[in-house]
Structures are given as structure tokens and as C-alpha cells.
Amino acid sequence: MKKIIFLLFLIILIALLIITMGIAYWYQHPQKNQQTVVLIERGASLSQITNNLGAFHVLDFPILLKGILYGSGGWHQLKAGEYLIPASVTPAQLIHILKSGDVILHPVTVVEGETSYHLTQKLLKDDHFQGPCEPPTEGSLLPETYHFPRGTERQKIVIRMQNAMHAALSEIWAKRSIEQRLQSPKELVILASIVEKETSLPQERPLVAAVFLNRLKQGIPLQADPTVLYGLTQGKQDLGRALTKEDLQGESPYNTYRQLGLPPSPIANPSLASLKAVANPATADYIYFVANGTGGHVFAVTLEEHQKNHAAWRKIKVRELNAP
Q: How many angstroms from the chain centroid is the CA of residue 138?
């Protein structure tokens, strides 16, 4: 009888050893999975997590992983999020990935000169994120590309963009030239948003800023078409046509043909380059500028010079219209 008991014990011991060795081999052995993305929902149970891994064919035997994580208590260390699981991952590597919190980040770009309304609409259409989002104050977002994990609240995304603008603006304002004569960071953002809309050439921005600052200093209306356009659309859509004489004569606080000084708010979210250009404009006496037909502008000090430049621009437009 003792021999039988001993034999059974030995068989059980050998079986346990074989099982343990098999699990250890499986734990360190690459699976046959393809690269895939797996989402661990916040608050998901261990069963939900391992079933999800099985459904995505990440593991051959998800129940083994469930047992390992449950027995070790390691499943409490798994972090919610969206993970990129490489091909041929081992269960050991998989656990490390899911504990790392190194989740997939999704980009959100505030384009230079984009309005807050357009950015809000873009966020609301992006199903990687959640929650409501009201258009933030115009000019309060710093244009650049940000990255966020799936499920981030949209309002938190906006707050991060605003914090980035606040930090950048504080630094730029502190380093501003005394010649620019603006009274507040808000005024700097307003003028930078106009410069942003007037030219896309980085080398021109300090010159365009100088023109508008010279106009402000001399009490000349800014006469900036982008401000008139913003007054008509509030930055929500394209006007769909060119500005007319009636538009330029309209009563609007954004009509800088009729109103002296800056408009009441920014007309877009200006780039760092435009903010820096306004804070440290070119040293120039220019009062006027007009398109040169090649994507840039030609600048002038006197009205006579400007009229000649404008006439040249009109000839270019006529040639373009008559071109086959």
C-alpha cells in the first residue's frame, strides 16, 4: 500500500513538474500572433482582459495568463489604455507591456492660423477622445502637434493647449522689443493672429509686423482683409467669395478699414513665429505692402510707391485671368 501511495505521489509530482515546465516554456515562448492593437478598458476585470487578448489572437491559451496574473497578483498592476502588441510576443513580454503604461498616443494638431472653432470641430469628430468641448477663446491655443492616449477628455486636451500658449506667450512677452509699443500680451496675440493670416513666409512676418505697428503708431487704420473676413464668418467657415467694397464698408469691430487700432480679439491661433515677429519686429519704416505674385509681398514707405506696386500686382492678376 505504501508503495502504491508513493508511486501515485511520484506520478503526481512528475505531472506537476511537467505542467510547470510546460507553462514556463509557454510563458517565455513567442506566440503566433500578428502585430495588433489591444485596448484595456478602465475598470476591466481580469477575465475581460484575458478574453480580449484571446479574441485578438494575441495568446494561444489566455487562461494560462489569467492563472499566472491571478496567482501572482500581477493583474492589479495592469494599466488601462491602448497598446501596440508586436508580432510573436511572449506572454512574459506581453505582461511587461501591459504593466508599462506605454500606451499608443494619438496626435492632435493645431494648425498655424487655425481658428478655435475649427479645432473644436476636429476634436469632436475624433473618436479617440471623449467628452464635450466648447470652442476656447480665440488665440488661446498654441499651434503645434500634441499627443494623447485614447479616452482623454477633450476639455483636458484644450487646457493643455492653452497652458502651452500661456507658457510660450509669457516667455515671448518678457523678451519683447521696447519698440513694438503694444500694451499687453493680449494685444500681441491679436496682432500676431493678423500677421499669421497675412503671410505664410517666415522671413516676411517681422516686416508685416513692422507695417502694422507703424500704422498703429501713426494712427492709420490697419486695413487688414483677414480681420474683415473674420468679422463676417467668426472663423467658422470660408466666405466662399472674395471680399467686396460693401464688406470693407460694413459696420463691424473687426473691420479694420473703418475702425482704428486693433480688433477686439485675435482672429486665429497664431504660431510661435508670428508671436515672435510681433514681439521683435523688423526695423523698417514700411507702411504698405501688397502681393508680388510669387507668394510673397513687396513693401513700401510712401503711398506713391505703394500705388506703383499695387498697379504691378493688378497687371499680374490680369495676366493670370487671361492665361489659357
A: 15
